[in-house]
Amino acid sequence: MRLAVTGKTGQVVTALLERGEAMGAEIVALGRPEIDLSLDRSVLDTLAAASPDVIVSAAAYTAVDKAETEADRAEAVNARGPGLVAEAAAALNVPVIHLSTDYVFDGSKPSPYVETDATRPLGVYGRTKLAGETAVAAATPNHVILRTAWVYSPFGQNFLKTMLRLAADRPELRVVDDQRGNPTSALDIADAVLVIARNLFDRPDDAALRGVFHLAGTGEASWADFATEIFAASAALGGPSAGVSRITTADYATPARRPANSRLSTARLQQVHGVTMPHWTTSTRSVVERLVAATA
Ligand SMILES: NC(=O)C1=CN([C@@H]2O[C@H](COP(=O)(O)OP(=O)(O)OC[C@H]3O[C@@H](n4cnc5c(N)ncnc54)[C@H](OP(=O)(O)O)[C@@H]3O)[C@@H](O)[C@H]2O)C=CC1
Ligand SMILES: Cc1cn([C@H]2C[C@H](O)[C@@H](COP(=O)(O)OP(=O)(O)O[C@H]3O[C@@H](C)C(=O)[C@@H](O)[C@H]3O)O2)c(=O)[nH]c1=O
Ligand SMILES: [Mg+2]
């Protein structure tokens, strides 16, 4: 099975390159300059040349705050680009697995979100990602849209790496404690995507395998809980750690609003695709281990 993935250095694409081999899949990473999602060209030709069995749409404009002042660019990369990728999948008659986000929700629900809950993004990033979902679904019924959340890994930029970096020269960090969600390892996402891709490949006519699914680490946390776990794991290995001062969203001004609750129920994914995600604390410890070992 060969997977063509959009993006070259992103967290999820890097995790897929690492995990693909172990799972007997070939991963072809296609990003700039061959595929630039902000330009309306060459997407079909470049994907066709890779002869994929499944296309994974993982590239995105992920700078949540910067998106507030770069809405056109976010719209191109997060909405129009994935639409072109899904049109290419339709033309090549292969499934597309498209990554989306918990930030499509407004956070007002008191319990974990299910796939059929109403969406209402609070910012440009979430709004353009939701438009991407719509574009993908309009292009082909042969799609899986995976809403994931709070992605961290040893790769690229993420909250876990930011915490370790800031802890190196500060004794205490202020971290919001009133936004709750599901920290999710990109390596666990890669493992799940490989299982889902195999299911779609093996059962091309099974409509029940298609549609929107929530994919996130088991268990839940606030950003302050996540930071506390990161520092406990790091300190145990002699790595950087800091005290966590628990603050509210009102005490931490950012250009973009973020949902207070973006916990995702993964029951549908478990039932339909047989994917069970590891607990976020287990995966957090293993990512911290890799990062601390790399700098020791
Ligand atoms: N990060 C997170 O916390 C979350 C992410 N998601 C979603 O998961 C998916 C994967 O995220 P993640 O791996 O963390 O993303 P990253 O921010 O780590 O990487 C973004 C990727 O998108 C590529 N990209 C950006 N702009 C363009 C463009 N114009 N043309 C082509 N490629 C482009 C980058 O390319 P290059 O390699 O050239 O830099 C990079 O590979 C995304 O769809 C994201 O919206 C969902 C929830 C949480
Ligand atoms: C760095 C830092 C952040 N924060 C807060 C700000 C924010 O509310 C929260 C998370 O900050 P970040 O900017 O790292 O995370 P953010 O960019 O909001 O992360 C989101 O990215 C996109 C791509 C997604 O799809 C989401 O699922 C989610 O992962 O933590 C602190 O309270 N203290 C700090 O020192
Ligand atoms: Mg960010």
UniProtKB/TrEMBL annotation:
Q: Does the keyword Oxidoreductase apply?
A: yes
Keyword set includes NADP: yes
Reaction catalysed?
dTDP-beta-L-rhamnose + NADP(+) = dTDP-4-dehydro-beta-L-rhamnose + NADPH + H(+)
Record's superkingdom? Answer: Bacteria
Q: Name one Pfam family in it.
A: RmlD_sub_bind
According to the UniProt entry, its GO molecular function terms are:
dTDP-4-dehydrorhamnose reductase activity
InterPro entries per UniProt: dTDP_dehydrorham_reduct (IPR005913), NAD(P)-bd_dom_sf (IPR036291), RmlD-like-bd (IPR029903)
Pathway assigned to this chain's UniProt record: Carbohydrate biosynthesis; dTDP-L-rhamnose biosynthesis
What is written in the cofactor note of this entry?
Binds 1 Mg(2+) ion per monomer.
Q: Enumerate the spans annotated as RmlD-like substrate binding domain.
A: 1-291
Keywords from the UniProt entry: NADP, Oxidoreductase
Which cofactor does the UniProt annotation name? Mg(2+)
| Classification via Gene3D superfamilies | NAD(P)-binding Rossmann-like Domain, UDP-galactose 4-epimerase, domain 1
Enzyme Commission numbers on file: 1.1.1.133
Which family is this sequence assigned to?
Belongs to the dTDP-4-dehydrorhamnose reductase family.
Alphabetized NCBIfam families for the sequence: rmlD
Q: What function is annotated for this protein? A: Catalyzes the reduction of dTDP-6-deoxy-L-lyxo-4-hexulose to yield dTDP-L-rhamnose.
Checking PANTHER family in the record gives:
DTDP-4-DEHYDRORHAMNOSE REDUCTASE, METHIONINE ADENOSYLTRANSFERASE 2 SUBUNIT BETA
Q: What is this protein called?
A: dTDP-4-dehydrorhamnose reductase
Organism this protein belongs to: Devosia oryziradicis
